[in-house]
Design goal:
alpha/beta; Rossmann fold; 14 helices; about 40% helix; about 15% strand; DNA-binding; Lambda_DNA-bd_dom_sf
């Protein structure tokens, strides 16, 4: 059965969709007679507009409650995704709302089933944090609740998103290394695991092309697990395969950057005198590393705030086309990178 939309009501009454939205939202711009006609037609057509929540409908005895879904992987990254959650909670408290966090287990993913504690009727909207497989996210979208995805998107999933300017960030990070004199730059990150990683890789390749540097596939490790043993083995194979290793690397995230530095130090390379390393995401790995890692950082507070604002907007504009908000990444230069002319390479 087709879901009734505001456009269907507008078509039946021969008025604009905007007039229908104003009438159902009890806003100015339309007459009381039009509001009554629109509401009557909506009820006759089975369009449920009375249950639509807003962030500001709270009373001392009632709070709007929103759900956030995240995998074990995302929830374990407290200095990145944990910070986004913290800022979402802080922003929502301004409106007197509550946030419930649901762990998406491997069993939920394999069986494509929602966590047992979740009940659709208890929530006015959803946040989806980071990567979960497409069928599970579609399961959430099929609930037809206002939904915002954070730090993840997919061309097959139609919903609002808050993201990083990954391609631009990858370009700027690579350009930074090029401006330091590096002409042989490697890339490390599993581009098939996350669209964000793939976009960072695309930005890296564009920067190489724009600066007339060769795009060498042999120097791109793009399909690898973020595990020390796996990465060490891959890097050892690369060292045996190419005559000259890159003088600089761009890593898709900070965990990869940390492991990369550990590997090269373990076989006698100096960072940054022999190899410079730049990564994405300003997490604990970037400051625990010795030396600390130059990184492309995202304003996590702003990401959390924008996610809440976008969900609030969606509650007020349920029929509007979906939006994608992209936040910039900025470079934090640390000790893991240096200019070629200064290092004697």
């Amino acid at each position: 059965m087709k879901k009734i939309s505001m456009q269907d009501i507008a078509d039946k009454l021969h008025i604009s969709k905007n007039s229908v939205s104003q009438a159902l939202g009890d806003k100015g711009g339309v007459s009381e007679q039009t509001k009554m006609r629109v509401r009557k037609t909506a009820e006759e057509m089975g369009y449920d507009y009375r249950k639509r929540a807003t962030f500001k409908q709270n009373t001392p005895h009632h709070k709007n409650t929103f759900a956030l879904f995240a995998t074990d992987f995302a929830l374990s990254h407290k200095s990145f995704f944990g910070e986004i959650i913290r800022y979402i909670e802080k922003e929502m408290k301004k409106y007197g709302n509550e946030l419930c966090i649901f762990r998406v287990s491997p069993e939920n993913i394999s069986s494509n089933s929602l966590p047992a504690a979740f009940s659709k009727s208890a929530y006015q909207g959803l946040f989806i944090l980071s990567h979960i497989n497409r069928p599970f996210i579609q399961l959430l979208l099929d609930l037809q609740l206002p939904t915002v995805m954070i730090d993840h998107h997919d061309p097959h999933l139609d919903t609002d998103c808050v993201l990083c300017q990954n391609k631009t960030g990858g370009y700027l990070a690579t350009e930074f290394l090029i401006n330091q004199g590096h002409k042989k730059i490697g890339f490390l990150g599993d581009i098939d695991w996350s669209p964000s990683y793939e976009e960072r890789w695309e930005g890296y390749m564009k920067a190489l092309r724009d600066n007339q540097l060769p795009v060498e596939k042999a120097l791109m490790i793009t399909g690898i697990q973020e595990k020390r043993s796996v990465l060490y083995k891959e890097l050892e194979a690369l060292a045996n395969k190419v005559s000259d290793l890159p003088t600089a690397w761009l890593c898709a995230n900070s965990g990869m950057g940390f492991i990369l530095i550990s590997y090269f130090q373990s076989i006698g390379y100096r960072i940054p005198e022999d190899i410079s390393v730049c990564c994405f995401d300003n997490t604990e790995f970037t400051v625990l590393s010795n030396p600390q890692i130059t990184t492309m950082a995202i304003d996590l507070r702003d990401m959390g705030r924008k996610a809440v604002q976008l969900l609030e907007w969606r509650l007020d504009h349920p029929s509007h086309s979906h939006l994608e908000i992209r936040l910039p990444a900025h470079l934090i230069e640390r000790e893991s990178t240096s200019a070629v002319s200064l290092s004697g390479k």
